[in-house]
Amino acid sequence: MAGTVIVFDFDKTIIDVDSDNWVVDSLGFTEQFERLLPSMPWNTLMDTMMGELHAAGKTLDDVAEVLRRAPIDPRVPAAIRAAYALGCDLRVLSDANAFFIETILEHHGLRGCFTEINTNPSHIDADGRLRIGPYHEFRAGGVTHGCGVGTCPPNMCKGQVLDRILREAASGGRRRRVIYLGDGRGDYCPSLRLAREDFMMPRRGYPVWDLIVEDPARVQAEVHPWADGAEMEATLLGLVRRALVEEAALLPLDCKLESMPVAVQDGMPMPLGVKN
Ligand SMILES: [Mg+2]
Ligand SMILES: [Zn+2]
Protein backbone atom coordinates (compact mmCIF):
# COMPACT_ATOMS: atom_id res chain seq x y z
CA MET A 1 0.00 0.00 0.00
CA ALA A 2 1.34 3.39 -0.93
CA GLY A 3 -0.93 5.76 0.99
CA THR A 4 -0.24 7.94 3.99
CA VAL A 5 -0.53 6.10 7.31
CA ILE A 6 -3.03 7.71 9.72
CA VAL A 7 -2.95 6.65 13.38
CA PHE A 8 -6.04 7.57 15.42
CA ASP A 9 -6.38 7.56 19.16
CA PHE A 10 -9.96 6.47 19.97
CA ASP A 11 -11.40 8.10 23.14
CA LYS A 12 -12.01 11.86 22.71
CA THR A 13 -10.52 11.60 19.22
CA ILE A 14 -12.77 9.31 17.14
CA ILE A 15 -15.60 9.44 19.68
CA ASP A 16 -16.19 12.62 21.66
CA VAL A 17 -16.11 11.00 25.13
CA ASP A 18 -13.98 8.47 27.01
CA SER A 19 -15.60 5.09 26.30
CA ASP A 20 -14.64 3.68 29.72
CA ASN A 21 -16.25 6.59 31.60
CA TRP A 22 -19.19 6.56 29.22
CA VAL A 23 -20.03 2.90 29.96
CA VAL A 24 -19.51 3.24 33.72
CA ASP A 25 -21.53 6.48 33.99
CA SER A 26 -24.33 5.43 31.61
CA LEU A 27 -24.93 2.21 33.54
CA GLY A 28 -24.94 4.04 36.89
CA PHE A 29 -21.63 2.78 38.32
CA THR A 30 -19.78 6.09 38.72
CA GLU A 31 -19.65 5.82 42.52
CA GLN A 32 -18.04 2.35 42.56
CA PHE A 33 -15.61 3.46 39.85
CA GLU A 34 -14.48 6.50 41.81
CA ARG A 35 -14.16 4.51 45.02
CA LEU A 36 -11.85 1.96 43.37
CA LEU A 37 -9.87 4.42 41.19
CA PRO A 38 -7.19 5.34 43.79
CA SER A 39 -6.42 1.68 44.52
CA MET A 40 -5.49 0.24 41.11
CA PRO A 41 -4.27 1.12 37.61
CA TRP A 42 -7.00 2.19 35.15
CA ASN A 43 -6.69 -0.92 32.99
CA THR A 44 -7.14 -3.23 36.04
CA LEU A 45 -9.99 -1.04 37.25
CA MET A 46 -11.90 -1.42 33.98
CA ASP A 47 -11.59 -5.22 34.18
CA THR A 48 -12.82 -5.01 37.79
CA MET A 49 -15.71 -2.74 36.79
CA MET A 50 -16.81 -5.26 34.15
CA GLY A 51 -17.00 -7.77 37.02
CA GLU A 52 -19.08 -5.33 39.10
CA LEU A 53 -21.47 -4.76 36.19
CA HIS A 54 -21.81 -8.50 35.61
CA ALA A 55 -22.45 -9.17 39.33
CA ALA A 56 -25.21 -6.54 39.28
CA GLY A 57 -26.94 -8.29 36.37
CA LYS A 58 -25.80 -6.03 33.54
CA THR A 59 -25.25 -8.08 30.39
CA LEU A 60 -22.77 -7.59 27.58
CA ASP A 61 -25.72 -6.52 25.43
CA ASP A 62 -26.40 -3.73 27.94
CA VAL A 63 -22.78 -2.61 27.58
CA ALA A 64 -22.92 -2.80 23.77
CA GLU A 65 -26.18 -0.85 23.68
CA VAL A 66 -24.59 1.95 25.71
CA LEU A 67 -21.48 1.94 23.49
CA ARG A 68 -23.60 2.37 20.36
CA ARG A 69 -24.99 5.57 21.88
CA ALA A 70 -21.54 7.09 22.58
CA PRO A 71 -21.44 10.62 21.14
CA ILE A 72 -19.52 11.00 17.90
CA ASP A 73 -19.18 14.18 15.86
CA PRO A 74 -20.59 13.34 12.39
CA ARG A 75 -17.62 15.09 10.72
CA VAL A 76 -15.28 12.43 12.20
CA PRO A 77 -16.79 9.41 10.39
CA ALA A 78 -16.91 11.62 7.28
CA ALA A 79 -13.19 12.40 7.63
CA ILE A 80 -12.35 8.72 8.18
CA ARG A 81 -14.30 7.63 5.09
CA ALA A 82 -12.77 10.38 2.95
CA ALA A 83 -9.20 9.53 4.06
CA TYR A 84 -9.85 5.86 3.35
CA ALA A 85 -11.22 6.73 -0.09
CA LEU A 86 -8.04 8.73 -0.77
CA GLY A 87 -6.01 5.54 -0.25
CA CYS A 88 -4.75 6.14 3.29
CA ASP A 89 -3.82 3.27 5.61
CA LEU A 90 -5.85 3.87 8.81
CA ARG A 91 -4.96 2.40 12.21
CA VAL A 92 -6.39 2.73 15.73
CA LEU A 93 -4.00 3.05 18.69
CA SER A 94 -5.99 3.21 21.92
CA ASP A 95 -5.86 2.50 25.64
CA ALA A 96 -9.56 1.48 25.63
CA ASN A 97 -10.20 -2.16 24.70
CA ALA A 98 -11.02 -4.29 21.66
CA PHE A 99 -14.69 -4.92 22.50
CA PHE A 100 -15.56 -1.25 23.10
CA ILE A 101 -13.77 -0.03 19.96
CA GLU A 102 -15.03 -2.72 17.61
CA THR A 103 -18.62 -2.35 18.84
CA ILE A 104 -18.57 1.39 18.15
CA LEU A 105 -16.71 1.24 14.81
CA GLU A 106 -19.02 -1.50 13.54
CA HIS A 107 -22.09 0.44 14.63
CA HIS A 108 -20.96 3.41 12.52
CA GLY A 109 -19.91 1.20 9.58
CA LEU A 110 -16.25 2.22 9.98
CA ARG A 111 -14.55 -1.06 10.95
CA GLY A 112 -13.62 -1.84 7.33
CA CYS A 113 -11.74 1.46 6.96
CA PHE A 114 -9.08 0.38 9.48
CA THR A 115 -6.14 -1.92 8.78
CA GLU A 116 -5.69 -2.73 12.47
CA ILE A 117 -6.82 -1.89 15.98
CA ASN A 118 -3.99 -1.71 18.52
CA THR A 119 -5.51 -1.73 21.99
CA ASN A 120 -5.91 -3.66 25.24
CA PRO A 121 -7.20 -7.19 24.55
CA SER A 122 -10.65 -8.27 25.71
CA HIS A 123 -12.56 -11.52 25.73
CA ILE A 124 -15.88 -12.83 26.98
CA ASP A 125 -15.49 -15.49 29.66
CA ALA A 126 -17.67 -18.58 30.24
CA ASP A 127 -20.04 -16.56 32.46
CA GLY A 128 -20.60 -13.97 29.73
CA ARG A 129 -18.50 -11.36 31.53
CA LEU A 130 -16.14 -9.10 29.59
CA ARG A 131 -12.51 -9.50 30.65
CA ILE A 132 -10.09 -6.68 29.83
CA GLY A 133 -6.33 -7.25 29.89
CA PRO A 134 -3.26 -5.05 29.43
CA TYR A 135 -1.56 -4.45 26.05
CA HIS A 136 1.84 -4.82 27.78
CA GLU A 137 1.90 -7.18 30.76
CA PHE A 138 2.79 -5.45 34.02
CA ARG A 139 3.18 -6.41 37.68
CA ALA A 140 1.78 -4.47 40.62
CA GLY A 141 4.07 -1.49 41.00
CA GLY A 142 6.30 -2.61 38.13
CA VAL A 143 6.26 -1.29 34.60
CA THR A 144 7.67 -3.75 32.10
CA HIS A 145 7.37 -1.83 28.83
CA GLY A 146 10.43 0.14 29.92
CA CYS A 147 9.40 3.49 28.39
CA GLY A 148 11.19 6.40 30.03
CA VAL A 149 9.04 9.26 28.76
CA GLY A 150 6.99 9.21 31.96
CA THR A 151 3.53 9.84 30.51
CA CYS A 152 2.65 6.26 29.49
CA PRO A 153 0.41 4.07 31.68
CA PRO A 154 1.90 0.74 32.86
CA ASN A 155 -0.27 -1.32 30.51
CA MET A 156 0.48 0.53 27.27
CA CYS A 157 3.29 2.55 25.74
CA LYS A 158 1.76 3.87 22.53
CA GLY A 159 5.21 5.06 21.42
CA GLN A 160 6.46 1.48 21.21
CA VAL A 161 3.47 0.47 19.12
CA LEU A 162 4.03 3.51 16.89
CA ASP A 163 7.70 2.50 16.44
CA ARG A 164 6.51 -0.71 14.80
CA ILE A 165 4.06 1.23 12.60
CA LEU A 166 6.89 3.62 11.60
CA ARG A 167 9.07 0.64 10.63
CA GLU A 168 6.20 -0.68 8.49
CA ALA A 169 5.79 2.74 6.89
CA ALA A 170 9.49 2.69 5.97
CA SER A 171 9.46 -0.77 4.41
CA GLY A 172 8.87 -1.42 0.73
CA GLY A 173 10.29 1.49 -1.24
CA ARG A 174 9.40 5.10 -0.45
CA ARG A 175 8.75 5.82 3.24
CA ARG A 176 5.10 6.60 3.77
CA ARG A 177 4.30 9.66 5.86
CA VAL A 178 2.47 9.26 9.16
CA ILE A 179 -0.27 11.46 10.60
CA TYR A 180 -1.07 10.94 14.29
CA LEU A 181 -4.25 12.21 15.98
CA GLY A 182 -4.82 12.16 19.74
CA ASP A 183 -5.83 14.08 22.84
CA GLY A 184 -4.42 12.35 25.93
CA ARG A 185 -1.21 12.11 27.97
CA GLY A 186 -0.66 8.67 26.44
CA ASP A 187 -0.47 10.30 22.99
CA TYR A 188 2.58 12.38 23.97
CA CYS A 189 5.14 9.53 23.81
CA PRO A 190 4.23 8.60 20.19
CA SER A 191 4.28 12.30 19.20
CA LEU A 192 7.98 12.40 20.20
CA ARG A 193 8.77 9.48 17.87
CA LEU A 194 7.34 10.97 14.67
CA ALA A 195 9.87 12.21 12.12
CA ARG A 196 10.21 15.64 10.50
CA GLU A 197 8.17 14.63 7.45
CA ASP A 198 5.29 13.37 9.64
CA PHE A 199 2.36 15.29 11.11
CA MET A 200 1.10 15.45 14.69
CA MET A 201 -2.55 16.47 15.14
CA PRO A 202 -3.15 17.11 18.88
CA ARG A 203 -6.59 18.09 20.12
CA ARG A 204 -6.24 21.71 21.19
CA GLY A 205 -6.72 22.34 24.93
CA TYR A 206 -6.39 18.65 25.86
CA PRO A 207 -3.51 17.02 27.81
CA VAL A 208 -1.34 16.10 24.81
CA TRP A 209 -1.61 19.67 23.53
CA ASP A 210 -0.54 21.05 26.93
CA LEU A 211 2.48 18.71 26.96
CA ILE A 212 3.51 19.72 23.43
CA VAL A 213 3.30 23.48 24.04
CA GLU A 214 5.38 23.09 27.23
CA ASP A 215 8.41 22.29 25.07
CA PRO A 216 7.53 22.47 21.35
CA ALA A 217 11.11 21.70 20.22
CA ARG A 218 10.78 18.11 21.46
CA VAL A 219 8.32 17.28 18.65
CA GLN A 220 10.03 16.96 15.27
CA ALA A 221 6.84 16.47 13.25
CA GLU A 222 4.78 19.43 12.01
CA VAL A 223 2.07 20.12 14.59
CA HIS A 224 -1.50 20.85 13.38
CA PRO A 225 -4.00 21.20 16.25
CA TRP A 226 -7.76 20.73 15.95
CA ALA A 227 -10.62 21.38 18.33
CA ASP A 228 -13.72 19.63 16.94
CA GLY A 229 -14.84 17.26 14.21
CA ALA A 230 -15.12 19.93 11.52
CA GLU A 231 -11.62 21.23 12.18
CA MET A 232 -10.24 17.69 12.38
CA GLU A 233 -11.83 16.84 9.01
CA ALA A 234 -10.55 19.98 7.27
CA THR A 235 -7.04 19.69 8.76
CA LEU A 236 -6.66 15.96 8.20
CA LEU A 237 -7.89 15.97 4.61
CA GLY A 238 -5.75 19.04 3.88
CA LEU A 239 -2.66 17.16 5.08
CA VAL A 240 -3.59 14.01 3.15
CA ARG A 241 -3.97 16.00 -0.06
CA ARG A 242 -0.75 17.89 0.60
CA ALA A 243 1.10 14.59 1.09
CA LEU A 244 -0.33 13.32 -2.20
CA VAL A 245 0.74 16.48 -4.06
CA GLU A 246 4.22 16.47 -2.55
CA GLU A 247 4.66 12.80 -3.32
CA ALA A 248 3.63 13.34 -6.94
CA ALA A 249 6.02 16.29 -7.22
CA LEU A 250 8.88 14.17 -5.91
CA LEU A 251 8.23 11.24 -8.18
CA PRO A 252 9.88 12.40 -11.42
CA LEU A 253 12.93 13.63 -9.50
CA ASP A 254 13.31 10.29 -7.77
CA CYS A 255 12.85 8.45 -11.01
CA LYS A 256 15.56 10.54 -12.64
CA LEU A 257 17.95 10.11 -9.77
CA GLU A 258 17.41 6.46 -9.12
CA SER A 259 16.11 4.48 -11.97
CA MET A 260 15.17 6.26 -15.17
CA PRO A 261 17.37 5.69 -18.20
CA VAL A 262 18.96 8.85 -19.66
CA ALA A 263 16.77 8.70 -22.77
CA VAL A 264 13.65 8.98 -20.63
CA GLN A 265 14.95 12.14 -18.98
CA ASP A 266 15.11 13.87 -22.36
CA GLY A 267 11.57 14.69 -23.22
CA MET A 268 9.66 11.46 -22.82
CA PRO A 269 6.56 11.75 -20.64
CA MET A 270 7.14 10.49 -17.15
CA PRO A 271 4.60 7.83 -16.21
CA LEU A 272 3.10 8.55 -12.81
CA GLY A 273 2.97 5.73 -10.35
CA VAL A 274 5.94 3.75 -11.63
CA LYS A 275 7.30 3.49 -8.12
CA ASN A 276 5.63 1.44 -5.42
MG1 LIG B 1 -7.93 9.78 23.82
ZN1 LIG C 1 6.02 5.46 26.10
From TrEMBL:
Molecular function (Gene Ontology), one example: phosphatase activity
One Pfam family hit: Put_Phosphatase
Stored InterPro entries: HAD-like_sf, HAD_hydro_PyrdxlP_Pase-like, HAD_sf, Pase_PHOSPHO-typ
Keywords assigned: Hydrolase, Magnesium, Metal-binding
Descriptive protein name: Inorganic pyrophosphatase 2
PANTHER family: LP01149P, PHOSPHATASE, ORPHAN 1, 2
Binding site for Mg(2+): 9, 11, 183
Cofactors that this protein relies on: Mg(2+)
Annotated NCBIfam families: DKMTPPase-SF (TIGR01489), HAD-SF-IB (TIGR01488)
Ligand binding (substrate): 20, 95
Active-site residues, as the UniProt record annotates them: 9, 11
